[in-house]
C-alpha cells in the first residue's frame, strides 16, 4: 500500500518549502534604451536640424550683405549662394526625414508630435520658395543676363522666401542655440542628455559645408557675364 500510494503523492523537499515561503524580491528596473538607437532618433534629428540652421543663418546673413551691395559684391553673392546649396539640401533632408518618420508612424517621432498648425501650413511655402530661389539662381548663371523671365522668377521666389523663412526662423529661434550646441559640448548641460550619433551629425554638417565650398569655387567663374552686365548698367538687379 505504501508503495502504491507513494506513486500518487508528489515529492516535496525541504528546499522547495523554504523557497516557496520566501517573499519574491522585486526585479531591478531595466535601464531605458539609448534614445533613438545609434543615430539618436528624434533628438538627434532635432540637433542636426538646429546645427545646420545656425550655419545657414550665418551664411544667409553674409548673402544679405552682398544683396545690399550687389554691384561690387556680385561675385561674392554667387560664391555664397552656391556655398549654401549643400547645407540647404541637408536642412531639407533632415526636416523631410522627420516628416516621413512621423507620418509613417515611428513611435518616438509620433510622441514628440508635429510642429504647431500654423508652421505646418507654412512649411510647403518655405520648401517651395527655397527650392525656387536656388533653382532660379543657378538658372541665371546658366542663361546669363539675357534671362529676363528667370530673373523675375528669382525675385518673386526670393520675396516669398524672405517672408516665410523669416517667420519660420523666428518661431524656432528660442530653441535653436541649445540644440545646435548640444553635440559640440564635452558634457551635456542639464536637462540635456547625451544622444548617440553626435560624430555622425558633426560629420554630415562638415561634409555639407566642404561640398558647398567646392561647388562655389568651381562655379564662381559663371558670375563674370553678370559682373560685366552690372558694371555697364546702373540697376542693381540680381
Structure description:
The protein is built from 10 helices and no strands. By secondary structure, the protein is an all-alpha fold. It has a domain at 40-120 and 180-231. The model is unreliable at 6-10 and 28-34 (pLDDT under 50). The N and C termini lie far apart (110 Å). The longest helix is centred in the middle third of the chain and has 34 residues, at 70-103. It has helices at 2-6, 14-21, 41-68, 70-103, 107-112, 117-143, 148-172, 176-182, 198-219, 224-231. Helix 3 (41-68) packs antiparallel against helix 4 (70-103), helix 3 (41-68) packs across helix 8 (176-182) and helix 4 crosses helix 6.
Uncertain residue ranges: 6-10, 28-34
Structural class label:
mainly alpha
Major beta-sheet overview = none
Please tell me what the overall shape is: elongated
Strand content: under 5%
Q: Please state the average pLDDT score.
A: 85
Output the helix-strand order: HHHHHHHHHH
According to DSSP, the number of beta strands is: 0
- Helix content range: over 70%
Rg value: 29 Å
User: Cα distance, first to last residue?
Assistant: 110 Å
Q: Figure out the total of helices.
A: 10
Quick structural summary:
The protein is mainly alpha-helical.
Question: What layout of secondary structure does this protein have?
Answer:
Blueprint (H helix, E strand, L loop, with lengths): L1 H5 L7 H8 L19 H28 L1 H34 L3 H6 L4 H27 L4 H25 L3 H7 L15 H22 L4 H8 L7
